[in-house]
Amino acid sequence: MPLNRRVNRLLALIALVVVSVFIVRKINHSGTQQVSQQQQQEESLRPTDPKHPGSSPPSPNPLLQEVGEPDGVLTHVGDTDRPRANATLLSLVRNSELRGIVRTMQDVERTFNSKFNYPWTFFNDEPFTEEFKRRTQAMTKAPCRYELIPKEHWETPPWINKDIVAVSGQILVEDDIMYAKQQSYHKMCRWNSGMFYKHPALKDVRWYWRIEPNTRYYCSIDYDVFRYMEDNDKTYGYVINIYDAPQSIRTLWPTTMEFVAQHPEYVNPNNALQWLTDSEIRPDHNTIANGYSTCHFWSNFEIGDMNFFRSDAYDMYFEYLDHAGGFFYERWGDAPVHSIGLGLFLDKSKIHWFKDIGYLHMPYYNCPASKKCSGCQAGRFTDAGYLNRENCIDNFFKYVHSD
């Protein structure tokens, strides 16, 4: 295709998407006014608590130093006087991923769950096969539940314009965004963002540990991670903190600011706004994502309190995002959506870095220097050197700090 025709085609596609999305979302502010209002809104949200300074110099990699169990109240194996938490190991997984989830279950059972025996809950948008059930149950002494996701929780919602999806998907392809046109991926991101905690099987469960197939765990965990969260007033735990592809979330932050403008009462005074909006380390990301640093907790590992996600603040936030359409018109992931919700609506002191948990989800690691770990090089973030710049943990230390 000649260059001029290609350029004209792309310009036409971009114009169509921009106009269509603006109509769908009924945005009636001019670009300049919106940016100005957004900047004012962000400034009004910054923490004012003198006990939590705005920033500090980046920290040296703490994973290169000896890493032990976290401070605080811990429940170890044999502490029979302490009841288990109301929790489950949670996995969204396809039948075709059986081999990958079995391998990961081996790691999780070996390092943690054989000691604490928490139940597994598996979710799928199709019924699980008998082979899947048989082989996964054989990996654990804990009970396993196999749940079907309701169609209304999984399928593309009726307000999404499929013509816009098709055109915007092509633009994402031009931007080299992975899974741009893979609708199952968009559905998965939406479900993980705001549908999982609404499933009937979890209505009486508080805590979850998200487990994904083909992830690895390297370190023995001899304390109950769920009891740790509950006993030490934590809400969310992560292991990896990285940047997202800004082209996939161009309107996520402006849409978030629209919601915050309507509901300022939900913003926590001790929020993590500066981590979310930093423009010094990766200014190109902040520019393309319209004010968002793109830093986020990589949610393929997360230990969380579903009471936070069920709160009015987060649930209404998700509903606002859902009707804006960005899960399908762009590629809003559950990782940035969770992270922004946590960064704005939760006291940042309730976020915990599980630096003692050795973990791999290709191509990124969390590798502590600990005698309890094997098979993982201390301090490693990735095997691909050029990806080291994707690590956002220093940014989190700078603005939020970590326990």
The global form is: globular
Distance between the termini: 55 Å
Report the mean per-residue pLDDT as an integer.
Answer: 89
**Number of helical regions:** 16
- Helix and strand sequence: HHEHEHEHHHEEHEEHHHEEHHHHEEEH
Strand order of the largest sheet: 3-2-1-4-9-6-10
In what range is the share of β-strand residues?
5-15%
Major beta sheet summary? 7 strands, mixed
Computed over alpha carbons, the radius of gyration is 21 Å
Helix content: 40-55%
Say how many strands there are. Answer: 12
Uncertain stretches = 6-35, 48-57
Structural class: alpha/beta
Description:
This protein has a seven-stranded mixed beta sheet with strand order 3-2-1-4-9-6-10. The protein has helices spanning 3-25, 31-45, 98-116, 130-137, 151-154, 162-174, 183-194, 225-231, 252-262, 273-277, 283-288, 306-309, 312-324, 326-329, 334-345, 393-399, and strands at residues 87-92, 120-124, 144-148, 207-210, 216-217, 236-238, 241-243, 295-297, 302-305, 351-353, 359-361, 364-366. The protein is 40% helix and 11% strand. By secondary structure, the protein is an alpha/beta fold. It starts with a helix and ends with a helix. It has 16 helices and twelve strands.
Task: Tell me briefly what this model is.
With 403 residues, the protein is an alpha/beta fold.
Topology of this protein?
Layout: H1 3-25, H2 31-45, E1 87-92, H3 98-116, E2 120-124, H4 130-137, E3 144-148, H5 151-154, H6 162-174, H7 183-194, E4 207-210, E5 216-217, H8 225-231, E6 236-238, E7 241-243, H9 252-262, H10 273-277, H11 283-288, E8 295-297, E9 302-305, H12 306-309, H13 312-324, H14 326-329, H15 334-345, E10 351-353, E11 359-361, E12 364-366, H16 393-399
Parallel strand pairs: 1-2, 1-4, 2-3, 6-10
Antiparallel strand pairs: 4-9, 5-11, 6-9, 7-8, 11-12
